[in-house]
Amino acid sequence: MAKRKIKAPTSEYTSPEGDVLELRGSMTPGTRREYAETLGGSPLSREDAWHRGVEFLFERLAVSWAVAGTDPLTRQKDLLLRFRMASQAERAWIRDVLREHLAEHFPELATP
């Protein structure tokens, strides 16, 4: 009998510009530890740790991102590349979405 892979629940967030970001609603204990270490476990400046925390969460939680009505990006490599070239406004929206998502799904985690 084949094992069925359990799919994590997801949530979609839509920007005022029509971008749609889909985020996972679960994280492994190991990922949670890594995130905590990213925010506070290194001698980075607070701002650098904050930026790394946002990128870490995006990399681990993003399932898809449809930018301005385009076909959604779903490959992890493509998602991360697009995130890294996002405008300041897009990054601010993503940061706000991640904060909202953490508050709802992972209230025990610090927000970046």
In short:
Helix content is 49%, strand content 13%. With 112 residues, it is α+β, with helices and mostly antiparallel strands.
What report would you give on this structure?
The protein is of the alpha+beta class and 112 residues long. It has four helices and three strands, in the order E-E-H-H-E-H-H. It has a three-stranded antiparallel β-sheet with strand order 1-2-3. Strand 1 and strand 2 form a beta hairpin. 13% of the residues are buried. The model has no long low-confidence stretch (mean pLDDT 90).
Instruction: Please state the average pLDDT score.
Output: 90
The biggest beta sheet is recorded as:
3 strands, antiparallel
Low-pLDDT runs: none
Identify the overall geometry: globular
Strand fraction: 5-15%
- Global structural class: alpha+beta
State the share of residues found in helices, binned by percent: 40-55%
Number of strands: 3
Strand order in the largest sheet: 1-2-3
Order of helices and strands: EEHHEHH
**What is the subunit arrangement here?**
single chain
Computed CA radius of gyration, to the nearest angstrom: 14 Å
Please render the helix and strand layout as text.
Blueprint: E1 10-14, E2 20-24, H1 29-40, H2 46-61, E3 62-66, H3 76-84, H4 88-105
Antiparallel strand pairs: 1-2, 2-3
Task: Fill in the keyword field for this structure.
single chain; three-stranded antiparallel beta sheet; 3 strands; globular; 49% helix; alpha+beta; 112 residues
